[in-house]
Write a structure and sequence with these properties.
- The complex is a heterodimer of chains A (211) and B (383).
- With 211 residues, chain A is mainly alpha-helical.
- Chain A folds into two domains: 27-130, Orthogonal Bundle (Rna Polymerase Sigma Factor, Chain: A), CATH 1.10.1740.10; 144-211, Winged helix-like DNA-binding domain superfamily/Winged helix DNA-binding domain (Arc Repressor Mutant, subunit A, Orthogonal Bundle).
- Chain A is 67% helix and 0% strand.
- In chain A, helix 3 (49-69) packs across helix 5.
- The N and C termini of chain A lie far apart (39 Å).
- Chain B has helices spanning 4-23, 29-39, 57-76, 94-98, 241-250, 260-272, 276-287, 292-308, 312-325, 332-346, 349-362, 369-381; strands at 87-88, 108-111, 119-120, 127-131, 135-139, 144-147, 153-164, 173-177, 180-184, 187-194, 197-204, 206-211, 214-219, 223-227.
- In chain B, strands 1, 2, 3, 4, 5, 6, 7, 10, 11 and 14 form a ten-stranded mixed β-sheet that branches. A four-stranded antiparallel β-sheet of chain B has the order 8-9-12-13, with no helix packed on it.
- The chains are: A mainly alpha (211), B alpha+beta (383).
Chain lengths: 211, 383
């Protein structure tokens, strides 16, 4: 058995706390026929505002959900999503259709969320300086009443950014490993490895809380 | 006492259920609609939607440092740049190319850059000009676009079609044409200067044409023309429309034609300063107009009535009027929730329950569903 296969088997047999169901109830973004995406992209490129609206309606929920799960605080999510769609629009002319449109949009969102994460870490580092005013604690999203989701966000925040992204893309967004590898620009084996570690760390963190 | 296995099972079940809930997390639909309002204009060439909130600090600092550097370099190396011919720039976005035009091959995409040299088109030639802030201008044949003393675009001759992205509250975009200043919040319109007359035609949104402190308001489909003769050029005007409207607002006598966004800002300030009656009067006036400022004003009247004047019934009526006028408005969900909360606080059980049921039916996937359901349960349980 190859190393790759061993990794996959290990990941599949690991005592996972999460539902391995790949169906994504909210994710209308699950693989669509490439031709459908291409037709939509082509219409948007030609300035068809209805097609642009269709694209937004199709992907705005996943983008909001994705940036939320990656730790973008509530007060920045709206702007982050806006930036992602502006980048999507500007990038459509160079979209070659080699990947699923959803994968490509996730890649843009992932890059932007990482950028925002680095900026937040820099801010929190600066806030440690004695002459720098401390950053206010992010407030919970008033639209999001579920304390469980907030707790999950706290648990996810304990993971490294790369592990968190793999876990979110796999478990919440329902992407396959090869798609995640495309989004993150790393080999599929690395995705499997990060996923395995991320799950283990998430379970450990959850157990510490429920203990 | 639970065994370790049971505890593990509980933890795994909880994680599984929570991740399932996270999969259903769809984000606040009001926020998504706000974002849509900012990005919907991209195919029409509005490639710089509103910037916002907290993101200004780093870019502002970086921009300031870059600006200082550029100024220093230009100061040390003077007169090495061409100061006239317009800078031919790359297209701001593919959207610019998507605008239909009879002779696209003859179109130029130019940026005023630092030189602010006039853009001229000859016969049979057209130009597209990308201005700071995402404003797109299509300059027709035999036209001249320059900049006045206040750095506003000035249509000296010919026809120009402007596409202006929606401006942030309190801000507006202005174009000069002869003695007139055309102000907009976000719209598409044409300005023409020919035969000693200035003409304005509105494709979308609302436009105000100012001359001194008098103005005329034009809505979608309207057109207007005024004489040029005997009037000093706009460059020497000293009173901007914004200043004029502020002055009048200070006198508590807003003219019919005060820019809606300014009026809205004034109303908010009045409310913050503890003058809810003044705020309500200004909002009421502003709400009679059209466009985003009117929509915001119609919604905010309810807040002033409820929180400032302690008239919750009147507030509910105001939000109801908002819903009637803007059934698919950006603040529709907010209005629905405000009515629901206010009715619940008033103890109007039947009306609150009806509102809650209507909300749950209208927004079946709302993340506020739980909140509304709990509120409805509380109302039901109330004696």
């Amino acid at each position: 058995m190859s190393t790759n296969d061993q990794e996959k088997q290990m990941a599949e047999t690991i005592a996972s706390p999460v539902n391995m169901n790949q169906q994504n109830p909210a994710g209308s973004q699950r693989p669509r026929p490439l031709a459908e995406d291409h037709a939509l992209v082509e219409r948007v490129r030609k300035g068809d505002t209805l097609a642009w609206r269709t694209l937004y309606e199709r992907y705005s929920q996943p983008v909001f959900r994705f940036v939320s799960a990656l730790g973008v605080p509530p007060e920045e999510r709206e702007d982050a999503s806006q930036d992602v769609f502006v980048a999507v629009y500007r990038g459509l002319k160079s979209f070659r259709g080699e990947a699923q449109l959803s994968t490509w949009i996730y890649r843009i969102a992932a890059r932007h969320a990482s950028h925002l994460g680095r900026r937040r870490r820099m801010r929190s580092f600066l806030s440690l300086l004695p002459w720098h005013e401390a950053e206010p604690e992010p407030q919970p999203d008033p639209a999001e009443k579920a304390s469980e989701l907030r707790l999950l966000d706290q648990l996810l925040a304990k993971l490294s950014p790369k592990k968190r992204m793999v876990l979110v893309l796999f478990e919440i967004e329902g992407l396959g490993v090869n798609e995640i590898a495309q989004v993150m620009g790393c080999p599929a084996n690395t995705v499997w490895s990060r996923l395995r570690h991320a799950r283990a760390e998430l379970v450990r963190a959850a157990r510490r809380i429920t203990r | 006492m639970k065994s370790p296995t049971q505890r593990t099972d509980d933890t795994e079940r909880w994680l599984s259920e929570t991740i399932e809930a996270a999969r259903r997390r769809i984000g606040d639909e009001v926020a998504r609609r706000r974002v849509w309002a900012r990005v919907e204009g991209l195919p029409a060439g509005q490639d710089r939607p509103l910037r916002r909130a907290r993101a200004w600090a780093f870019p502002a600092l970086t921009g300031a440092l870059v600006a200082v550097g550029v100024v220093a370099v230009l100061w040390m190396v003077p007169a090495t740049r061409p100061t006239h011919a317009p800078v031919v720039a790359k297209r701001a976005s593919s959207a610019t190319a998507s605008v239909s035009q009879p002779r696209a091959d003859a179109a130029r995409v130019v940026s005023p850059g630092a030189s602010a040299a006039p853009v001229r088109t000859g016969r049979g030639e057209k130009a597209r000009v990308a201005l700071v802030g995402g404003v797109g201008v299509e300059l027709d044949a035999d036209s001249v676009l320059s900049w006045d003393a206040e750095r506003r675009p000035l249509v000296e001759r010919g026809q120009a079609r402007f596409e202006v992205p929606h401006q942030a509250p309190g801000l507006k975009f202005a174009v000069s044409a002869g003695p007139y200043v055309v102000t907009v919040v976000g719209t598409k319109f044409h300005v023409g200067v020919a035969d000693d007359r200035v003409s304005v035609a509105v494709e979308e949104g609302v436009v105000e044409v100012w001359r001194g402190d008098r103005s005329v308001r034009l809505v979608e489909g309207d057109s207007w023309a005024g004489p040029m003769r005997g009037i000093a050029p706009p460059a020497v005007q000293h009173r901007s429309p914004a200043a004029a409207s502020r002055r009048v607002a200070e006198a508590a006598a807003l003219p019919e034609s005060a820019p809606a966004s300014v009026e809205l800002t004034e109303a908010r300030s009045a409310f913050k300063e503890g003058r809810p009656e003044d705020a309500l009067a200004m909002l009421s006036h502003c709400a009679k107009g059209a466009g985003p400022a009117a929509e915001n004003a119609a919604y905010e009247m309810g807040r002033v009535l409820r929180d400032g004047l302690r008239r919750p019934r009147a507030a509910v009526a105001a939000w109801g009027a908002y819903r009637t006028r803007f059934p698919d408005g950006l603040l529709r969900a907010e209005a629905d929730l405000s009515i629901l909360e206010t009715l619940a606080k008033l103890g109007d059980k039947a009306a609150a329950l009806a509102e809650a049921e209507a909300f749950l039916a209208r927004y079946p996937n709302s993340e506020r569903r739980d909140e509304v359901a709990k509120l409805a349960a509380r109302v039901r349980g109330a004696p």
